[in-house]
Amino acid sequence: MIIRPASPNDAQAICNIYRYYVEHTSISFEETTPTTEEMKNRIVDFTSNYPFLIAEDQGKMLGYAYAHAFGDRPAYRYTAELSIYTKHTDKGRGIGRQLYQALEDQLKKQGIVNAVAVVTGSNTNSLAFHQKLGYKIIGRLPQAGYKFGHWEDTVWLYKQLAKPSTLV
């Protein structure tokens, strides 16, 4: 397996992985899968400032992880929000761990101090995954989203990637 940067050419394969989560789960709060063109635009937007990584094996995409702005105010620039999706048929193979490690390594090199993940409260696998990687639960927003006839909480997790310093 290799980890590499995403490009707009990966948009269709990313949509293929993401579609399952949008159409069959509350893991994503999106209700319609983005088009390939919309995903291309997201890749271009996210990669202008943050890493967007692909895991693939023998040319087949297994998953992806990316970071994006935590907030749109300048003072948030040292905090990034992370997202990860792997093929739903490829769980438990260490793909997510390798993607997150590579993503965190790149964020550290960029000077990012804090990583935040926002996870659906019922997604116990993702909560356990993040906690195993050192993320701490820092909050819960009850009934933050409504999908498939159910209210869903969101859980906020946090990991310090680097020691904050006095920036000049």
UniProtKB/TrEMBL annotation:
<dbReference type="GO" id="GO:0016747">
    <property type="term" value="F:acyltransferase activity, transferring groups other than amino-acyl groups"/>
</dbReference>
<dbReference type="InterPro" id="IPR016181">
    <property type="entry name" value="Acyl_CoA_acyltransferase"/>
</dbReference>
<keyword id="KW-0808">Transferase</keyword>
<protein>
    <submittedName>
        <fullName>Uncharacterized protein</fullName>
    </submittedName>
</protein>
<dbReference type="InterPro" id="IPR000182">
    <property type="entry name" value="GNAT_dom"/>
</dbReference>
<dbReference type="Pfam" id="PF13420">
    <property type="entry name" value="Acetyltransf_4"/>
</dbReference>
<keyword id="KW-0012">Acyltransferase</keyword>
